[in-house]
């Protein structure tokens, strides 16, 4: 099979690798499309290694494809099933083996492109907002960096939960497209970063950008509010006025999925399978695809991922 490989210098290369073989509790999937994420670039820089049990030099955290081989101990799954999954690595290849309990069914009518951008973004959004922050109808939620892959998922999950969503988007040409993410019966207000304070206070602030000033948003919280730190591409170190956190009796929550145990990931997959995939099937959630590239166009795909002005997900089609 062909696979994108991170070489010793941190560069991406397209190489041939042996086809993986499914173990007893695994399924081999022929990948039709794969999502790109900031973690792929971080892994290439040596900052975010793959967890044990996953390919150490093949990036890719989310895939969509067809089942080609079913392990001896796997039940309820057949060759030809259309599936998608959040994986620990190895997704940017023509084939991958995945533990069966991480797989999600692909709703009828969903394209490979959309499915490839669903698992990481919406698993992250649901876990952070619903499971950890306990978002409720009527909450005011600020999502920073709301035009990206995870940002567009956060906006939709918050709105579908009945929250009033304020999406912070630097590029004004994307504001109308972010507004259109609002599920039926909900609204999304879009502002530039400098306008966030005018819509405060917030019950939940979703931090997807990072940078030195990001934790100043504690000043925008309502009493007992929460800041969810999910992305830090703009910088990994930020000062915090702890007295502001104390006065607000606020919570600061950091989260990531890749480094969790298999049991935790399987539990999250089960939650997404029963609670989030049905919303996608009903059309209440959608996956905006910014751009799609063939596997041999991997260099352009990663360049687009690293560049500014994206709306939604960057994917590769195999």
Question: Notable features of this structure?
Answer:
single chain; 318 residues; alpha/beta; Quinone Oxidoreductase, Chain A, domain 1; Rossmann fold; 2 domains; 7-stranded mixed β-sheet; 6-stranded parallel β-sheet; 15 strands; 24% helix; globular
Written overview of the protein:
The longest helix has 14 residues, at 119-132. The chain has helices at residues 38-44, 112-116, 119-132, 149-160, 175-179, 242-247, 262-275, 277-281, 298-306, and strands at residues 2-6, 12-16, 26-35, 62-70, 82-86, 95-99, 103-105, 140-144, 164-168, 188-191, 202-207, 221-229, 251-254, 289-294, 313-317. The mean pLDDT is 96. Strands 3, 4, 5, 6, 7, 14 and 15 form a 7-stranded mixed β-sheet that branches. It contains 9 helices and 15 strands. The protein folds into 2 domains: 2-118 and 258-317, Quinone Oxidoreductase, Chain A, domain 1; 121-254, Rossmann fold. It is α/β, with parallel strands linked by helices and 318 residues long. Helices cover 24% and strands 27% of the residues.
Task: Furnish the topology, listing elements before pairings.
Elements: E1 2-6, E2 12-16, E3 26-35, H1 38-44, E4 62-70, E5 82-86, E6 95-99, E7 103-105, H2 112-116, H3 119-132, E8 140-144, H4 149-160, E9 164-168, H5 175-179, E10 188-191, E11 202-207, E12 221-229, H6 242-247, E13 251-254, H7 262-275, H8 277-281, E14 289-294, H9 298-306, E15 313-317
Parallel strand pairs: 8-9, 8-11, 9-10, 11-12, 12-13, 14-15
Antiparallel strand pairs: 1-2, 3-4, 3-6, 3-15, 4-5, 5-7
């Amino acid at each position: 099979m062909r696979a994108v490989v991170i070489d010793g210098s941190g560069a991406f290369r397209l190489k041939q690798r042996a086809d993986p073989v499914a173990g007893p509790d695994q399924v081999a999937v022929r990948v039709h499309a794969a999502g790109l994420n900031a973690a792929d670039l971080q892994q290439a820089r040596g900052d975010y290694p793959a967890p044990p049990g996953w390919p150490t030099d093949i990036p890719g955290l989310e895939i969509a494809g067809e089942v080609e081989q079913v392990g001896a101990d796997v039940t309820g799954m057949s060759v030809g099933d259309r599936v998608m999954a959040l994986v620990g690595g190895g997704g940017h290849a023509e084939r991958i083996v995945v533990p069966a309990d991480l797989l999600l069914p692909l709703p009828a009518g969903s394209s490979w492109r959309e499915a490839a951008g669903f698992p990481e973004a919406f698993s992250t959004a649901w876990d952070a907002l619903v499971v950890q922050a306990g978002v409720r109808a009527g909450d005011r939620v600020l999502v920073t960096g709301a035009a990206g892959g995870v940002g567009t998922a956060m906006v939709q999950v918050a709105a579908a939960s009945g929250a009033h969503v304020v999406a912070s988007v630097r590029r004004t040409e994307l504001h109308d497209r972010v507004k259109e993410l609002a599920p039926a019966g909900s609204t999304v207000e879009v502002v530039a970063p400098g306008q966030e304070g005018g819509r405060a206070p917030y019950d939940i602030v979703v931090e997807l950008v990072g940078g030195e000033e990001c934790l100043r948003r504690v000043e925008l919280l309502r009493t007992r509010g929460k800041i969810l730190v999910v992305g830090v591409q703009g910088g990994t170190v930020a000062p915090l006025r702890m007295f502001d956190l104390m006065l607000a009796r606020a919570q600061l929550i950091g989260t990531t999925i890749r480094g969790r145990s298999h049991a935790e990931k399987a539990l999250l997959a089960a939650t997404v399978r029963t609670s989030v995939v049905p919303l996608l099937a009903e059309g209440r959630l959608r996956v905006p695809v910014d751009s799609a590239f063939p596997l041999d166009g991997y260099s352009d795909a990663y360049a687009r991922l690293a560049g500014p002005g994206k709306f939604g997900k960057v994917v590769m089609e195999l």
